[in-house]
Specification:
- By secondary structure, the protein is of the alpha/beta class.
- It has helices spanning 7-19, 22-29, 33-47, 63-88, 106-120, 133-141, 203-211, 228-236, 283-302; strands at 52-54, 59-61, 95-101, 124-130, 147-152, 159-174, 184-185, 195-197, 220-222, 241-245, 258-263, 269-277.
- α1 crosses α3 and α2 crosses α3.
Length: 306
Amino acid sequence: MKTLPSLRQLQYLLALSETLSFSRAAKLCHVTQSTLSAGIRDLEAILGQPVVERTSRRVTLSTFGRDVLPYARATLDQAEKLVDQARARRTPLTGALRLGVIPTIAPYLLPDILPGLHADYPALDLHLREDMTARLITALDRNDIDAALIALPYESNGMVQMELFSEPFVLVQAADQVPTMPRRITLDTLKDQAILLLEDGHCLRDHAREACRLQDHAKEKTFSATSLPTLLQMVQHGYGATLLPAMAVRAGFLPQGLQIHEFNAPAPQRKIGLVWRQNSARGAEFRLLGQHIAANVEQKSQAGYR
């Protein structure tokens, strides 16, 4: 029988391809550098060719090493599916689950859903990763995470999208800027406002522009901020107004001196959904997770959450 590479050795190779550093790859794999180096040497001995080119200054993959990568990644994906299939036959939502969440959802939704998840699924080992939508979709495609909470619509080929709920946008501005503005407004109100939005790459910017038809208005401004708290500071100091999802304006999240204006029905909205790889063996689990989140939000909405 042939001597075959171990899954661990293939993991070491993938980590090296991502980091091009033995020390960083070892840290990524949670092993010592000497253990990882020995694993790579054993892999090279099994394959009969070097997979890494080492110099005193840097580490690169050999041509053969780069050729091996797709096979290594496919082998590890299949091994993970085997484990996932076995887990799914036991109890759903148990063991490790790597969940990505975008920054305009994470701080506002997670505090509400995590206690219930822990209570209903105590054996679930949830690993959270907060990042922008594009990077989360890439991480999903590379099998670095299992599922992601994002705002929809978002193009994600090869993924299942499960819509969970919708939430309205509201207009937020400094209270002393236009004290006569009514608390309930229409989209036409935006024509006279300087609207501050996050920089390109944030799906909240795109969804707010589309839902509120900002492309029809000339006073849109883009502020190069990567977070809503920074953007709100600009609004607080009178640089303009902004559009926020309802979950971000609940009591305790907004700084002092800001005023909230709700839109008359039908209010502009964004949709929140859960996405995962189409070929994942844990699809039923992720649907269960999505149903749990949607039910939690619905319960909160009846109590004034949205």
